[in-house]
Structure formats: C-alpha cells, structure tokens
Write the structure tokens for this entry.
Amino acid sequence: MKRIRKGDQVVVISGKDKGRHGTVLVVRDDDRLIVEAVNMAKKHVKANPMQGAEGGIVEKEMPIHISNVMMFNAITNKGDRVGFKVLEDGRKVRCFKSNGEVIDA
C-alpha cells in the first residue's frame, strides 16, 4: 500500500516549486509522480499533420520524486506525514501522523 495515491492533495516541500499545492495525476513505479501544475517544463513539439497535431512550444508537467512532496492536511493547512492504522474491522487505512485522522474513510 502506497502512502501517496492518485487524486491526493499534496504540497511540494523542496525544489523550485517549494510551497505549491496540487493534485496527484499519475503515480509511476519508479517512486515518481506527476502533480498538477507543478514542475512545468517547456517542450518543443514538431507538427504532425497526419494526427492533426500542431507544432510549437508546449508546457507540460514533469515527474517529481515522491520524497519531495507531503500529503496536504486540510485541518492544519500544512503538509503532513502519512502512517498506517488497522481499524477494528481489520481494514488497513492511511492516517495523518500529527493528529491521527483517517484519510481513507
């Protein structure tokens, strides 16, 4: 079970985009993830008339390492560490370390 999943709200804790918030779009197998509007890069794209794609300079999100982000805790309005807890019914769920609140209800 991963600590950060697709759709989670995260905050960047290091790098050029430090302090920015975003939603996780993709979690890759190599411990990298793509966060919405974070780590943007300009990519030069060649036109392809067969597919109807225009050429030019396109901005796109690039992967960022999972160690450079923290889950965003809406109660404290800060980044927070994530732990695991086993409930009474035997389910294993994610929870915030600071206040113990369950993330996956």
The mean pLDDT is 95. DSSP finds no helices and ten strands in the chain. The domain at 9-80 is CATH 2.30.30.30 (SH3 type barrels.).
